[in-house]
Design brief:
- The protein is mainly β.
- About 5% of the residues lie in helices and about 55% in strands.
- It has one domain.
- Strands 1, 2, 3, 4, 5, 6, 7, 8, 9, 10 and 11 form an eleven-stranded parallel sheet that branches.
- The radius of gyration is 17 Å and the shape is globular.
């Protein structure tokens, strides 16, 4: 009897020294060691290696940053490793920053945006 196997979209690898500019779409996981510039989307996980850089807009399920990200991010889960740098605006339900990792910018949860609470901020002086 034959059984159905889950189709895997595979892994796309952008090697160190490679530069891609423009709209890029990945159907599976992506491992970025080079440079990507533009609008990038993935239905899965994007991993930015220590030598990798993404500049632009990224929409994916999960992103792990060991290199550099600059721009706008929309994902379910954001992980910044000890060598990672995030500089921009993040829309994410979950964020994890390892010691040494850097986050420069702003972060909103997907739920807050859906409830229109993203910009409903109370100044710290009034919150006390």
């Amino acid at each position: 009897m034959l059984s159905k196997k889950n189709k895997s979209s595979g892994l796309t690898y952008i090697a160190d020294g490679t530069q891609i500019t423009g709209d890029t779409e990945f159907s599976g996981d992506a491992l970025v060691g080079g440079n990507l510039n533009g609008a990038i989307s993935s239905k899965s996980t994007v991993t930015i290696e220590k030598s990798g850089t993404i500049e632009g807009e990224l929409n994916c399920k999960e992103v792990s940053i060991s290199g550099t990200f600059k721009g706008k991010l929309s994902c379910d889960r954001l992980v910044i490793t000890s060598t990672g740098l995030f500089d921009g605006e993040a829309r994410s339900d979950s964020i994890e920053i390892f010691e040494g990792g850097q986050f420069i910018g702003s972060r909103f949860s997907n739920q807050a945006i859906e409830n229109n609470d993203a910009y409903n901020v109370t100044p710290i002086e009034k919150a006390q």
